[in-house]
Amino acid sequence: MINIQQIQERSIALRDNRTFEMLVVGVIILSALLIGAKTYPIPSAVTQIILWLDVGITFLFLFEIIVRFIAEPNKKRFFHNGWNVFDTLVVVVSLIPIDNSDMALVGRLVRVFRVLRMVSIIPELRTLLNSLVRALPQLGYVVLLMFIIFYIYAAVGATFFAEINPVLWGDISISLLTLFRVMTFEDWTDVMYETMAVYPLSWSYYLTFIFFTAFAFLNMVIGIVVNVLEDEHAKERAEKAEEDGSATLNELRDEIQELKALIINLKK
Asked: Can you give the residue ranges of the Ion transport domain (predicted)?
């Protein structure tokens, strides 16, 4: 007879199986394609097939969540992971038959969010998202500095260019939108040539703004994210080394210091 220990071992083996992981990823992609297919006018027979496929996908997700829960050694810690909570909520809400009720819109939105389950399945995506979240405090200061630059240039633009084209430079809020257009290179040369007809040196206004925003700030954002991503990878390597029983650099350093102290004491 299969006992609880054997069930857990088999669940762990299934959870860690690469083929099973790829199967779940494939089903998530299929789920996304089915959601997209519903936005097209399709025959009723195809709609019925999509509904049955959706039901099958939901029960497969339920099976995958159960496997992950059984494979967890400490069941109480399963829901300490935010992604486990998210996956469970998405699956549970998908099981509720609300397609023909007033909550049908909520049901469709939940099925759209099932695509995000790829983040919880693929470790590399989790690492990227965790790095982005960790970088948000530092990015906040970059965004604040960018807003200051935007505001200064918008005030200058509204002061000098409002009479040239009130639609683009009529007030500071409109000027901010125009500068965002310039930063994204959306026909910005047309805006520049229009002001250069009155102020020939206004090209320096646009070029310096583009340098500060599109180049300097973009590189700062990339640098912050890459730095946090490297820290996240180093943290994962340290955790993996600890799980494998390998000595970390800090542990080796402590052991060397202990050996040095022991040698000094022996010489005395």
From this structure: 18-235
Vertex 254: Cα angle to 253 and 259 (nearest 5): 100
Query: What pLDDT shows up at residue 176?
Result: 94
Radius of gyration of the chain (CA): 28
pLDDT tens-digit readout, 116-172: 777 777 777 777 777 777 888 888 888 888 899 999 999 999 999 999 999 999 999
Report the residue count for the chain: 268
Are the C-beta atoms of residues 124 and 233 closer than 8 Å to each other? no
| Domains of the chain (ranges, CATH numbers) | 2-120 (1.20.120.350), 136-242 (1.10.287.70)
Q: Report the Cα 113 to chain-centroid distance in Å.
A: 13
Sign of dihedral through CA atoms 159, 165, 171, 175? negative
In the chain, the amino acid numbered 200 is P
Question: At CB < 8 A and 24+ separation, what contacts does 176-184 make?
Answer: 176/150, 176/151, 178/154, 179/150, 179/153, 179/154, 179/209, 179/213, 180/150, 182/206, 182/209, 182/210, 183/209, 183/210, 183/213, 183/214
Does an H or E element contain 106, and which? helix 104-113
pLDDT digits (tens, 9 = 90+) for 65-110: 888 888 887 777 788 777 788 888 888 877 776 655 556 666 677 7
The 10 Å Cβ neighbour count of residue 46 is 12
Residues 210, 189: Cα–Cα separation, whole Å: 12
d(CA 14, CA 56): 19
d(CA 190, CA 202): 13
Phi then psi for 198, rounded to 5 degrees? -105, -45
**Separation between Cα atoms, residue 3 and residue 70, nearest integer Å:** 13
